[in-house]
Amino acid sequence: MGTRFVGSLEPFKDKMAEQGYSGLRYMAQRELDVNGTAIVTGNVKYTSSVQVPGCLYTRFVRSPYGSAKITSLNTSKAENTPGVVKVFTAKSPEFAGKLYLGDVPLLTEGEVFFDTQPIVMIVAETQEAADDAAHAVEVKYEVMDALTDPVAARDLNPPKVTHTPRLITPPFEAERPNVINCFYVRSGDIEQGFADADVIIEEEFTTEADPHGYLVPITATAQPHGDGTMTLWVDVQNIHPVPWPTAAAAAEIPMDKLNVIGPDVCAGGFGGKNCGAPGPYAAIAAKSTGRPVRVAFDDNRLQHATRPWNVCQIKAGAKNDGKFTAIDITFNIGTPYAVFSLSVMERAREAITCTYHWGHRDLYERPNVMFTAYDSYCNLVETMSYRGFGVLESQFPHETMVNMLAAKLGMDRLEIRLLNLTKEGERSAQNEIIRSQGSEGVQKKVYEMMQAWGPKPSVPAPWVVGRGFTGANKYSQGDMVHNLIFLKLRSTGIIDIIADSMDIGQGMNTVSRQFVAEAMNIPIENVRKVEVNTAYVPWTSDSFSSSATDDIGQAIVDAAKNAKEKLFEWAAPKLGTSASNLETVDGMIQEKGKPENAISWKDAMAPRPHTIVQGSKNWPDGAPNDYDGPGKNDYYTGQALGPYFRLIMHMNFMAQAYEVMINKETGESKITKWIGGNDALPVNPTLLEGQIIGGGLYHGASNAMYEENIYDNGSILTKDLVDWKMPTILDFPKMDDIHTAIVPVWGEYFGENPRVNCPFGAKGVGEGVDVASPSGIVDAIHDAIGVWIKNAPAMSQKRILEALGKA
Amino acid sequence: MRALAPVKYYTATSLQDACEKLNQAGGKGKVLAGGSDIVDWLRKRYMPTPEVLVDIKKLGLDTIETKEDGVHIGATVKLSDLGKAGIPMLAEAARKGPSPQLQNQATVGGNMCQNVWCWYYRLKDWNCYRKGGPICFVPGGRNQYHAIMEQKVCNAIVPGDVSVALTALNANVNIAGMEGSRTVPMKDFYIVLGNVLKPDEIITDIVIPEKPSKGVFLKSRTRGAIDFATASVALSTTSQGTTVALGGVAPIIPSGTPEEIRSALGKATPLSENRYKINIVKHLLSEAGA
After folding, report:
1. Residues A97-143: pLDDT tens digits?
2. Domain A47-144+218-296 classified CATH 3.90.1170.50?
3. Which residues of A touch B (CB under 8 A)?
4. Helices (H), A8-86
5. Could you tell me the domains of chain B?
6. Predicted ipTM?
7. pTM given for the model
8. Phi/psi class of residue A20: alpha, beta or left (left: φ > 0; alpha: ψ in -120 to 50)?
9. Does A132 contact B221 at a Cβ distance shorter than 8 Å?
């Protein structure tokens, strides 16, 4: 087993105590994943295993083209296929005119804009009947030239205008006919910064559209109950902000009559299951047929949605001593419809401005940053949130540029980074106050561990070895809602956590139990997390943007305080003391320091069998919700305004080191050693290490290895796991060569007024772990073969041999 | 899960029965052995889709025997059992093929007859030559995994690794059909748009006339497992000389003496995205000692 370094939590104990922490009892403990046994024995209730008697099945007919007119559509044979109950098209009243997430028609007609766009939905008694009927649908197309270059798409005079009329207008640069959103950061004096630079590097990087790769297809089953109510099981990362209202709206059911139920564990999401995309279809079909309907996106799961295709043009300058002077970076992403793409580049903006001072503090009052991002209509596949979306795309060119500057200046890769790191309390190029900046500690530790690898191993020619190093950051977005949880306290001493914040494999079910056990000082076995549904589970922040740990944690800390107040109020007279003189210890309520004067929860609560307390993550009275909404920042300059305005909730910082082997004649490559580090304070080191390794190495590195998405005129050619090459375990190091470093800093939100601590100082890390991977790999490749590959994925044989001039 | 396309399924009771059933299917029948290729084909309903499956697993074609004329490998011998033939380079080819799970299921005959993995061929909306259409989309399209030689009308590559090894071993393929039996040298088994099997024919066994004194199988692929060859080289030296065969480079399996192969490689006609394969083949030839 490789090194599993975990920094000490001793420096943080006093701050933890302020939040009710009871002494490292559960914080930073390696509790087993509460779902672990069920997962490995196949006993977790996944959405895909929901079975409802009398259920109907579905199959879609989807466009195979990126851009085409539908010249004819004949569903008569499908309608007459035995077992078919209903055939829906865009003309069906249930679907006519209905849009999803802004501008996407649920079923399209007339023209298709991306490969896999749904045209027909068949509902049948059996899956076989649905499949047979789908194959009987006759669609004729007039194929058109697809627009697949996001740079060309953003042009003032692009090769084609994808949507006429334009469906969404950007806040500025609307003269670009395909552009639907722009983000800017304008900070400092970019021209002065470049004029002062001794070295300037200008490059272009491409990050390809990469599917999420979750192996369990996303499914939904809707069951109408005959009284206007419906239950919808859907494989999602969260039930509240998107799946629930979108399904209800699509089926024209009041939200209060739709009960959305999430899985025990979302079977792989990585952002791709944020929206519950099959849910609207299942709800519509169930309402229309009056029967349960199951929808599974298992015919296109690799391409249901992906990262956006991104082309980044970047120019950076530095002095000879390594101090950064300026950065000018332009992102260009392409998407057929808005969906989540509108906010992708918002994330990129945050990622660029917070790790390094682009415009060193010794030289300039403000960083010299020009950031521009265009989101344009293209005929590429739909974009969905994806583990660090916008950030992996931005950190790849960003951190590679740092390594390029280091190489040009003859500087060590760690040295140039440490010289330019932002500092605690400084303002970023977006005028945010930076907090919890753990880069120095984690970069130093990972670098030190990389040095401990010793000299590079000898390998037989034509293999060569290279080593790479990188930093990165990933923020968690500001809150969208007040987070609310309920704790049900049973007189038996059991606590049920009633909250959203789904477990998507990152271990939220376990982490939330640890928070409760810690705050209440009760055995963790006495804590449970109940099914997530909209019937009685309140809206807790969701498992996206790496915010769940913080959001549910904050609410738990608040709920625990409220729970103890209530328990102590009831117990105090029974123990003959004041409520302020009580504490919970091992599930008992006792007078502080006097275990002999104690009472069980049952006795304290009697005659109540249970009680409910709530906890929420509230802002101070009078403070507005901190989410980046209108007026929260200057949209043109990207500058935060006012004392409360946080664009970023908290941010975590990471570092990675790679050793790769490259065959200079065949282009074959593999990763042979790896280190991933993060600056989060670990609630559960084992789960955190799992995130670092699973996310940083297996998932993140895969984005940069072989996972090429290949298009021909907008048609996706790599539609299965043979052609879209997800790396296998043989492409990664053995466990002895996989190392992790957790170098905790106290988690705190950006900004001030007020300053806000993360619960027990813990920051969420689910995404940050993967955003450093491409830059680390490309640095290692450069070390091996002397060439910078400016494309992710980077490790196909073709790319390597082309870089070597052998193709 | 996607449902299989509707098929009529028969379990053949004899070789003759199998050939008759295939003949009756009128060109729309396929042999079913391990099923690792054909079942996926039916599930995804790639075009063309067979309508009849004839299961040959009970015909006793799963033995490996050494006879006077060489080592006989039955058509339904599993890839994972090829080590019993006592030819290491052949076992190596099987081991480097599909995943271990599939090696336990897939058969030698099936591996030889599997459909090509050209994405234009497998996606039903591209009507290419191999499907009876007017064009091959590869030269003007995306082609980094496609053929660099012997293209003629199709640019797909022979996907199976075992076939490459069998070609270098100068194997002969015994075939049974309605008109009786025949034998085809492995080097002639593939033709540009498929193989020489007629619709009513099945492979019974493959005969390797002489175990090599030197046998090499080298495969280059992008990921460490479960990946087709970007290029492969098989070399076999027997009392008759040295034969080299190339995989991953053509819709047939080029083979010959080392000199012939190098000469053929020198005349390769790579496409816009796959010139890199030439370097790989040169390197593998050198590593194999060809």
Report:
1. 999 988 999 999 999 999 999 999 999 999 999 999 999 999 999 99
2. yes
3. 64-65, 126-128, 130-132, 135, 298-299, 462, 665-668, 670, 706, 710-712, 715, 717-720, 722-723, 725, 727-731, 796-798, 801-802, 806-807
4. 13-18, 36-40, 76-79
5. 64-288 (3.30.465.10)
6. 0.95
7. 0.95
8. left
9. no
